[in-house]
Amino acid sequence: MNFFGRPTDGDDGEQAQPLLTQGTRRGRETMQPPRKNLQSRWRLWKANPYWLIPVVITVSMCRGLTMAPRIQVYNHIACQAFKKLPGSLPLPSPSNLTATIFAPAQDEDCPSADIQPRAAQIQATIITSMSVLSAITTGLWSRFGDIHGRKIILCSTIFGFIAMDIIVLLVTDTESFFSQYGEQFIVLGPIIDGLLGGLSAFNGVVHAYTSDCTPHGSRSKIFSTIQGIVFIGLASGPWVGSILLRLLKPSESMTFMFYLSILFQIAILTFILFLLPESLKPVVSDGTRTRPASTYSTLSRASSSSKPFLPRAKVLVIRFMKTFISPITMFRPKTIGRGRRDWNLTLVGLALFLYVLSSGVYQVKYLYAKHIYVWTAEQLSFYMSLLWITRAANLLVVLPLIISYFKPPTKPRLAVSPVSPGEEPETTEPERDIPAELRFDQKIAGYSLFVDGFSDFCVFLAPISSQSAFIFFSCLTSFTSGGNPAVHSLGAVCLHAAGRGSEVGSLFGALAVLSAIAHTFSPTIYAATYGLTVVTFPKAVFLLASIFLAIVVTLLWLIKPDNGSKEDSYSPITQDEEEAVSFRN
């Protein structure tokens, strides 16, 4: 027999066969990498919340980058509409229009008092249309993501952001057809963005992706980290924009902001398509993980029915309305015993809705500071940056330290299956005390929102002439920014405690729907209140915000950590099952 284990001419075939098999087995053992190395490589490419860091910071930076130029575009559209009115000044020539659109100073042909109401109306139309469509479609996209994965939702929402920037560029091109009808055409951007889910669907899928690849229990720490990254991106956007304003000519800098935003978002879209791992694993045949029933298959069956058109259309409309309402029905109280109902998710939904309503005071706060203290645009930008930096510091440093120190401990559970000699026993998901996790998130959210409402009430009580008190209590409000991620984490824990942990994607979609609905009404409520009281008592908006937050804190403290619900029977797919699924597909 030679070196490779093959039989020579003088060897007997019956004796050579087992030696051949043995030699081949040994060669495979030496040539194949150890299973542990394969598993470690697979774990490096598994879904992890930190894969979302470049996505979240890029999207937030693009929002901050185009925030000020977008206001300039609204003013330009209002100016164009004002000049078309009978008796107004004639339009300038196209050669001079580009320089006047993006000039830092106000256009002399369009007095500020004449175009500001129209610009505010354009902005309100854009925000309202986008919020309404997002409220309608976010639930649908969330259910779609529960079935087909999170990456497709991330891609669709970012494509909507890109479409918004492209529409703005088309409107600002004075030689294009779209510029002549800018006031009508600019609404197409939020329509596309809203139909694709908008920012509400993006926030919902980010929370769902994070929940897919984190263990059940409190997720306040990772949610606060992601929220802090959002404020870092928002704060860095204007900083990047100011650098570009100094390096580029004024006639080119603003349009270049949108081109840069599109470039960044296309790059992050490529990252999502080719590098970002999917967090939602396929359904395995043995039922390891179940998914909600597909609403889209129901609609397709109704559309392909042999019934006449009118009855078929009626069925489609009814089922579409049920699909639209279905995310909100998640907050309906569930029966957990004889005559007992679980109101925890209902209270979480109401708390988030009122909290988002209270957050509308931030936009009015900027108008209040500019009106009362006569701040310039530069002073106001410094004030906004200070708020964003303090929020980021709280979410990235202060709150994670508090959570790490006070979070309920977990115990790792060893696998029951026997192990071979020399191998380490595998561990499963850590054992968590779900009621303790729920109480912890309840306290984090309750204390944060209590301090938030208290700071607004202090602004209401402070002397109106004290700028230092206004800035101090505003920064104190920023240090309570952990309330929003804590409420989301609290909702996930309540869902898991009710035995419905596999519906976490639908939960965050439903929370995003509530947030979009609240964002639709919040600007109107505070704008009407501020408009009625700005002359006599301008601080009334802060009293209104503190009342909203007092109700929110009361609702949160009504949540029962141990209401008799059973713990979720859903368990994540193990490492071996993940590898089996990947090889099958």
Write a compact overview of the structure shown.
It is a multi-pass membrane protein. The chain is mainly α and 585 residues long. Helix content is 70%, strand content 1%.
How would you characterize the overall build of this protein?
The chain has helices at 13-31, 35-44, 53-65, 67-83, 94-101, 112-148, 151-172, 177-180, 182-185, 188-195, 198-212, 220-247, 250-274, 295-303, 309-329, 344-358, 361-372, 377-406, 434-461, 467-478, 483-497, 504-533, 540-557, 575-584, and strands at 334-335, 341-342. The protein contains 24 helices and two strands. It folds into two domains: 45-280, Up-down Bundle (Growth Hormone, Chain: A); 334-413 and 431-570, Growth Hormone, Chain: A. Helix 6 runs antiparallel to helix 22 (504-533) and helix 18 crosses helix 20. The model is unreliable at 1-36, 86-108, 284-304 and 567-585 (pLDDT under 50). A hairpin with a 5-residue loop joins strand 1 (334-335) and strand 2 (341-342). It is a multi-pass membrane protein. Keywords: Membrane, Transmembrane, Transmembrane helix. Its main location: membrane. InterPro entries: MFS (IPR011701), MFS_trans_sf (IPR036259).
Name a few traits of the molecule.
585 residues, mainly alpha, Growth Hormone, Chain: A, two-stranded antiparallel sheet, 24 helices, 2 strands, 70% helix, disordered N terminus, disordered C terminus
CATH third-level topology of the largest domain:
Growth Hormone, Chain: A
Distance between the termini: 42 Å
Mean model confidence by pLDDT: 73
How would you describe the shape? globular
Number of helices: 24
Percent helix range: over 70%
How many beta strands in the DSSP annotation?
A: 2
Would you identify the CATH H-level superfamily of the largest domain? MFS general substrate transporter like domains
